[in-house]
Design a protein that fits this description.
single chain, 545 residues, alpha/beta, Rossmann fold, GMP Synthetase, Chain A, domain 3, ten-stranded mixed sheet, five-stranded parallel sheet, 28 strands, 28% helix
Length: 545
C-alpha cells in the first residue's frame, strides 16, 4: 500500500491525539497563526516556542496541499520540491504532494543558489515550497527558473516573486483527493550528499517508503505509546525514515529545532520522549557537558527515555561505553544505510546486541547483504570487500543518470554501497571505510575509520578525522585531524605514546590540531579536509620511522 494510507489510518484511529510537536528553544514569542492552521500554540517568556497538531489536522492539512496542487494543474508524476528548515509545515506539505500522486523532492537547506538551481532542473521540478531562510537564494536563481514553475512561500511577509502558501492552502478543501496510488508508483527524489561534486537524484517508490516505516517500527519495537525526538533535518532520509516508525504506530513525534545539549535534554524531559536518535557529535557534546559539570542528568525527567540510537556514520565503541556509564538502563542501537537504500536500516545492530558495539550489525528486516571484491565475487568471511545490500528499499534509479545507475544497481538486485566492510564469525558486519577513502601507504591498505575509532578512545579528544595525504616515498600517509576537548591540552608526543598500541603501519604520520567539519547529517567532510590540508606544510609527528 502507499505510505499515505498510514496517515489516513492514523487520522481515523487517533484523530484527536497529538501527531507532531514543534519546539524552537531560540524563540519565546509565537507568531500570528490562523486558528485553522494549528490546534495549540503555547509560548510565554519562560518557555520556548511550541506548536502541535493532531493526526486529524495533519491529514487535513496534507489534503489541502494535495488539492491546492491539483487546482493549479499539477498532475500525478510531477515533481514538487521542498526547501524548508524543520518546522510543523514540512511533513504535511510532503504528504500532500504524495497524496495527489506527485513526487516530493526535499532539498538540502545548506545548498547554495547554484545547487538549488541544479537540483530543481535535474529533478524536473514544477513547484517549489520554500521558507524565509531561503528568500535570497531563490531570488538569485529566479531569472533562471522556468516561467512555468510555481513558487509557494511558507512564512510571513512573502517576497514579490512568490505566492503565499498560507493564503492559498487555507482556501482549499480538506477532503482527500482520492488519487489511486500503487506500491510501485514513484514517490520521492532524494539527493546524494554531493561530496564529490553536484549530487545525484535518487528515485524512490511508495513500496520503499512503506518498507522503511515497517522496518523502523520493528527494529526499535516502537509502540503507540512511544514519543520520538526528531532533531536532524527532515530533507534527509535519516531523519524522516526514523520518524516513519512513529507514522507506522500512530505515535507522537517531536520536531526539535536545534541540537545543543541543554535543548535536547529539555525536550526529552518536558515532552517525555522515549526514543532519541542522535548523531555522534551531539552525543559527544552531551557527554562533554556532563563531564564538565555544565549539565546534570539528575535535573531532568529522563526515566522514560528507553532507547538512544545513532546512525549516519561509524560509532566509536568508546563513545557508547561512556554513554552507558551515564545511562546504564538505556537500550542502544545503530543503523546503517544510505539514501539509495531509503535511508537507515538495511543493516542494523539490534538492541539486544550491545555486546557487539562497533559493528554496524546484521541485515535489517527484509534485507540481504554480501561483501564482494573488485570482480563482484563474494569474499570469504573475515576478508574486506565492498558491502552490497538487497531489499525492498533499494532505489529505482539515479534519475536521468543511467550510467551511474548501472554502476551501482546489479542485475541480481543488489546495490553496491561504496563502503568497505568485513563480516565476523558471528555474522556481524563491521564498516571499514568508504571505498574512496581507503589510504594506500607503502602498499598497505589503511582504513581511516579504524584509526579514528582507536584515537576516539583518548579522553582528551573530542572529535577526530583521518585522511590520506600525498607522500613522495609511500604514495600516501595517514594524517589525523584532532579536535581537542574544550579546556584540555594535547601534544603530538602524547598522541605518539597513545598510538603505540596500534600496529606501526597504521599510526598517523602527521597530526593537525583543528576542528573537524561535519555536514548536517554528522558525516565528516573529508573532501573539504583534503582540499584544506593537502598542500599545506604539516607538523611531522615523532617516532614515525
Amino acid at each position: 500500500m502507499p505510505i499515505t494510507d498510514l496517515l489516513e489510518r492514523n487520522s481515523k484511529l487517533y484523530g484527536r491525539e497529538t501527531a507532531l510537536v514543534e519546539i524552537n528553544p531560540e524563540v519565546t514569542e509565537a507568531p500570528r497563526v490562523s486558528w485553522r492552521e494549528y490546534e495549540l500554540i503555547q509560548s510565554t517568556s519562560s518557555m520556548p516556542y511550541r506548536r502541535e497538531i493532531s493526526w486529524r489536522v495533519f491529514d487535513e492539512k496534507a489534503n489541502r496541499v494535495a488539492n491546492l496542487l491539483m487546482d493549479r494543474g499539477i498532475k500525478k508524476g510531477q515533481k514538487c520540491a521542498i526547501l524548508l528548515m524543520n518546522c510543523l509545515e514540512w511533513l504535511p506539505i510532503y504528504f500532500g504532494i504524495l497524496k495527489m500522486g506527485g513526487i516530493a523532492v526535499p532539498l538540502n537547506f545548506r545548498y547554495t543558489a547554484d545547487e538549488i538551481d541544479y537540483c530543481l532542473k535535474l529533478s524536473d521540478a514544477d513547484v517549489l515550497f520554500f521558507g524565509p531562510e531561503f528568500i535570497g537564494r531563490v531570488e538569485d536563481i529566479f531569472p533562471k527558473i522556468s516561467s512555468q514553475m510555481i513558487l509557494y512561500y511558507v512564512g510571513d511577509n512573502k517576497p514579490s516573486f512568490a505566492e503565499s502558501y498560507q493564503e492559498q492552502v487555507n482556501n482549499c478543501v480538506s477532503k482527500s483527493p482520492r488519487i489511486l496510488l500503487e506500491d510501485t508508483d514513484d514517490a520521492a527524489i532524494y539527493f546524494s550528499s554531493g561530496t564529490t561534486g553536484f549530487p545525484k537524484a535518487i528515485l524512490l517508490d511508495h513500496m520503499a517508503l512503506l518498507q522503511s516505516a515497517r522496518m523502523e517500527a520493528k527494529h526499535h519495537e516502537t509502540t503507540h505509546d512511544d514519543i520520538f525526538l526528531c532533531i536532524p533535518p527532515l530533507y534527509h532520509t535519516g531523519a524522516k525514515m526514523h520518524w516513519f516508525g512513529s507514522l507506522f504506530t500512530g505515535s507522537r513525534g517531536i520536531i526539535l529545532k536545534g541540537n545543543k545539549p541543554q535543548a535536547i535534554l529539555d525536550a526529552v524531559s518536558s515532552e517525555r520522549c522515549t526514543i532519541v536518535w542522535l548523531l555522534v557529535p551531539w552525543a559527544q557534546d552531551i557527554l562533554a557537558a556532563f563531564d564538565r559539570g555544565e549539565l546534570d542528568p539528575a535535573n531532568y525527567h529522563l526515566s522514560q527515555w528507553r532507547l538512544m540510537h545513532i546512525g549516519a556514520q561509524p560509532v566509536p565503541p568508546s563513545l557508547i561505553k561512556r554513554w552507558m556509564a551515564y545511562f546504564p538502563n538505556h537500550k542502544y542501537d545503530t543503523n546503517y544505510g544510505l539514501s539509495e537504500s531509503t535511508g537507515p536500516g538495511c543493516v542494523h545492530l539490534g538492541m539486544e546486541n550491545i555486546n557487539k558495539v562497533g559493528a554496524i550489525g546484521v541485515p535489517g528486516f527484509g534485507w540481504e547483504c554480501k561483501i564482494v571484491d573488485e570482480n563482484y565475487t563474494t569474499v570469504k568471511q573475515g576478508e574486506v570487500g565492498e558491502l552490497c545490500v538487497k531489499g525492498p528499499g533499494v532505489m529505482k534509479c539515479y534519475y536521468h543518470n543511467p550510467e551511474a545507475t548501472a554502476e551501482v544497481l546489479m542485475k541480481d538486485g543488489y546495490l553496491r554501497t561504496g563502503d568497505m566492510a568485513e563480516q565476523d564469525a558471528d555474522g556481524f558486519y563491521f564498516l571499514v571505510d568508504r571505498k574512496k577513502d581507503v589510504i594506500i601507504s607503502g602498499g598497505e591498505n589503511l582504513y581511516p575509520v579504524q584509526i579514528e575509532s582507536f584515537l576516539a578512545a583518548n579522553p582528551k579528544i573530542h572529535d577526530v578525522a583521518v585522511i590520506g595525504l600525498p607522500d613522495s616515498r609511500l604514495g600516501e600517509i595517514a594524517a589525523a585531524i584532532v579536535q581537542v576537548k574544550e579546556g584540555m591540552e594535547l601534544t603530538e608526543e602524547e598522541l605518539d605514546r597513545f598510538c603505540l598500541d596500534l600496529p606501526r603501519y597504521k599510526r598517523p604520520r602527521k597530526y593537525i590540531f583543528a576542528d573537524v567539519p561535519r555536514n548536517a547529517t554528522g558525516k565528516i567532510e573529508k573532501p573539504k579536509l583534503r582540499e584544506r590540508y593537502g598542500g599545506v606544510r604539516l607538523v611531522e609527528a615523532q617516532n614515525k620511522a
